[in-house]
């Protein structure tokens, strides 16, 4: 069973992928910026995209 997540950025100006949902496939830590990126498969069209881990909310 996979857990679905919704993309809900805390910044108002972040519009890319807002309110889309999907399943986490993998993640990567970027050492230079100390951030965590998540490889997400979207539910509506099965495409993939990279999003910030802090922008995810579990459904």
**CA radius of gyration:** 11 Å
Sheet having the most strands? 5 strands, antiparallel
Helix content: under 10%
Classification by helices and strands: mainly beta
Helix and strand element order:
EEEEE
Kindly, what is the distance between the CA atoms of the first and last residues, rounded to a whole number of angstroms? 13 Å
How much beta, percentage-wise? over 45%
The general outline is globular
Estimate the mean pLDDT confidence.
Answer: 91
Uncertain spans, ≥5 residues at pLDDT below 50? none
Could you walk me through the main structural features you see in this protein, from its secondary elements to its overall organization?
- By secondary structure, this protein is mainly beta.
- It contains no helices and five strands.
- It has strands at residues 4-7, 21-30, 35-42, 48-52, 56-58.
- The chain has a five-stranded antiparallel beta sheet, with no helix packed on it.
- It starts with a strand and ends with a strand.
């Amino acid at each position: 069973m996979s857990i679905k997540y919704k993309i809900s950025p805390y910044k108002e100006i972040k519009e890319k992928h807002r309110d889309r949902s999907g399943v986490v496939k993998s993640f990567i830590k970027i050492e230079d910026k100390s951030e965590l990126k998540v490889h997400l498969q979207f539910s509506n069209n099965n495409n993939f995209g990279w999003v910030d881990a802090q922008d995810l909310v579990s459904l």
